[in-house]
Amino acid sequence: MKYDAIVIGAGPGGYATAIRLGQKGKSVLMIEKDKVGGECLNYGCIPSKSLIELASSVNYLKTMPGVRLNYNIDMAAWQNWKWSMINRLTSGIETLCIAYKIRIVKGNAMILDKTHVQVGVETYQCDHLVIATGSSPVKLDKFNDVLFNKEILDVKAIPKELIVIGGGYIGIELGTAFAKLGSMVTIIEVLPNILNGVDPELIKPVDRRLKDLGIRVMTSAKVAGVDKRDRYYVKMESGANLTADLVLLTAGRKPNIEGFGLETLKLEMENGFIKTDKRKMTSESNVWAVGDVSGMPMLAHKAFYEGGIVANNISGINSQVDYYAMPYVIYSDPEVAYTGKKSENATKFPIAANGRAQGMNSSLGHTSIYYDKDGTVVGAGFAAPHASELISEISLAIESGLTVEDLGSTIHPHPTISEAIKESAEIAYDKPLHFKPNR
């Protein structure tokens, strides 16, 4: 049978493309060698945020005045719940695919040419080929038997001592979570600062919280190697030696471009990624690429978005990507979220002045709105409780060309953290209700 499109990979980019094409009445075959939902749903985004939610809930009660806890975390039972939750989500995606008449084939895809893909002994034909093979953790020589995100999220017991190599968003998120669950955590970062590339003003409250949690952060520090014997031994280039029950390596991710015949297409590449134009088309006119394999940033919501763009283009609706208002989120404590661009005109409303935050016993962080000379919102940066749930308001404001007065005059419910957006916008014209700016 010939399909309108064959999609290789059933992660966020792959299944989003397939479902969007199915919604447009296209015939689709989706090939997946592991599990529907990909790395994000099974081993990354969803289970990591579930662990973070568990850790934050425990820590929230532990730090609330007047609360005395005597609790036990049965990680084996929690893992059973986690996998049942993930299985419900993957089953939901498979059900959607069936509803849109998308055929799912499990197995290793092998590209024969731009219109033929083989799985096992079967060969399938298509008009359009979509590559959505995702990414994998970077592995390093001399780092023996370390854990990656997949393994650390499947532990059956909380480690007493955990070393995290890498102070990027994955290392900070998981290091913080395990510290809240009782681990003694050390985070080692080769660069001078954690969360490289993030606005230093947004990192400051995260740094302070890491210290409050007793997390040891070693910056400008390089690991020479890791060995596992009776426990893990981490040798530093400085000559120092560290030990721990577990070692998590978070040295970044690389695109999956091997093992499925991609080289037969001779596509143009860029820094190890498949190069695409703004329509997400590769150097071959009927071959498309979405998600992690097609370039930075490696974000599931970027992959969802790109899947819709490709589905439109395959269906004859000319569409191009526009990442200007792309939201970025780090599930640290406090959460960090930002979108758009920073400008000379910026506000800063302290979370300590927000009533809901105080009621949560949370005072670290701030909300900043960035705007141009005529008041049009161009971006924002939040370090605040639930920042991940707040940032989309700013992405919408940017896309809609709204001004700081538009945000400031919008009624926000009380008491909520979202009021910090309204008051941050009001600072631009000196009208915040619960804070007097120093001007």
How would you portray this structure in words?
The chain has twelve helices and 24 strands. It is an alpha/beta fold and 439 residues long. A hairpin with a 4-residue loop joins strand 12 (232-236) and strand 13. The mean pLDDT is 97. It folds into three domains: 2-137 and 254-314, 3-Layer(bba) Sandwich (FAD/NAD(P)-binding domain); 149-251, FAD/NAD(P)-binding domain (3-Layer(bba) Sandwich); 328-427, Enolase-like, domain 1 (2-Layer Sandwich). The chain has helices spanning 12-23, 38-43, 45-63, 75-99, 149-152, 169-180, 200-212, 300-314, 355-359, 387-400, 404-408, 419-427; strands spanning 2-8, 28-32, 102-106, 109-113, 116-119, 122-131, 135-137, 161-165, 184-188, 216-218, 223-228, 232-236, 241-244, 246-249, 253-255, 269-270, 273-274, 287-289, 328-330, 335-340, 345-346, 349-350, 366-371, 377-384. The termini are far apart. Helix 1 (12-23) packs parallel to helix 8 and helix 3 (45-63) crosses helix 6 (169-180). The strands form six sheets. Strands 1, 2, 3, 4, 5, 6 and 18 form a seven-stranded mixed beta sheet that branches. Strands 19, 20, 21, 22, 23 and 24 form a six-stranded antiparallel beta sheet that branches. The radius of gyration is 23 Å and the shape is globular.
